[in-house]
Design brief:
mainly alpha; 5 helices; globular; Mntp/YtaF
Amino acid sequence: MPVVNLGEIISLFFVATALGMDAFSVGLGMGMQALRLKRIFFVGVTVGMFHIAMPFIGILLGQFISTKLEGFAVVAGGLLLFGLGAYMLLNSFNQDDEPAISPVGFGLIAFALSVSLDSFSVGLSLGMSGVKIFLALVLFGVVSMVLTWAGLLLGRKAKGLLGIYSELLGGSILCAFGLNILFG
């Protein structure tokens, strides 16, 4: 059984935290919707699973096309987040009480995919390194799940403070994060 050193665990933890911060940030915006705790739990688990699956797929494809898809994954993630945010912004001017994008069905898949595309790029490079892949994937999944929960719960608290402006703020956060990925 291969020995894992503490330095490798710490390094992978920092990479996992960096990859999960977008889930935290986007979770802040998404959490401003009226989400039940059961839904928040499910969203966090789904994002965690995507943060395991996407780098795993990246690792599998890493030997073949590492540099060609990395830029595409970043652009696709940024565009998806910006699009979701713009839709939430436009819908915030509707008088409906129904949220624009709900983390259910397609909205959940789009949310989880958009915040895990950067982990696909990291997976491309992990496939060529000597890192412990199982450890990396578990850390990516657990850390992103916890950060998603934290973002959603904080966003839920902010909803109570912001009232009707919460969806406008949530959409703005998604747009800003998408633009930051595209141009930052």
